[in-house]
Specification:
Layout lengths: L1 E3 L5 E3 L8 H18 L4 H96 L1
Antiparallel strand pairs: 1-2
């Protein structure tokens, strides 16, 4: 607060109380703690910390690469097994179809032979009857 004395010269009145010292001490302690925590490290300490961080980062990257490789190998193995299973199933189905077709072909040939034999026998029988009828008519 600014006041004037009897001579007209301004002066400042500072009012003091006991609470001003405690905040000052707390401020000094907090400032010192912050300075210790945020103070720059020496070059050797900084290099060592950077090396350690780089080592940890490399280890994590290697772990993730190993995990990815394992995952890809598992997926490839599953895919390969799936393709092999489907190939085997298709191969089996084709073989079964081929077998059924062969059986049908054999059955058709057998039926054709039987029908031919019946027709030849019928022709032979009719020729025999025809000759007998001709002989009977002549005779």
């Amino acid at each position: 607060m600014r006041d004037y004395d009897d001579d007209g010269v301004p002066y400042v009145v500072i009012e003091r109380s006991g609470i001003g010292l405690i905040p000052f001490i707390w401020g000094a302690l907090l400032g010192a703690a912050a300075a210790l925590l945020l103070a720059p490290k020496s070059g050797a300490e900084t290099q060592e910390e950077l090396k350690e961080r780089a080592r940890r980062l490399r280890e994590r990257a290697e772990e993730k690469a190993d995990e990815l490789q394992d995952t890809l190998q598992d997926a490839l193995s599953r895919g390969r097994r799936e393709v092999e299973d489907r190939y085997d199933t298709a191969k089996k189905t084709v073989a079964e179809g081929r077998e059924r077709a062969q059986q049908a072909l054999d059955a058709g040939r057998k039926a054709a032979r039987a029908a031919r034999s019946e027709i030849e026998e019928e022709i032979s029988t009719r020729r025999s009857r025809g000759k007998e009828e001709e002989e009977a008519a002549e005779g």
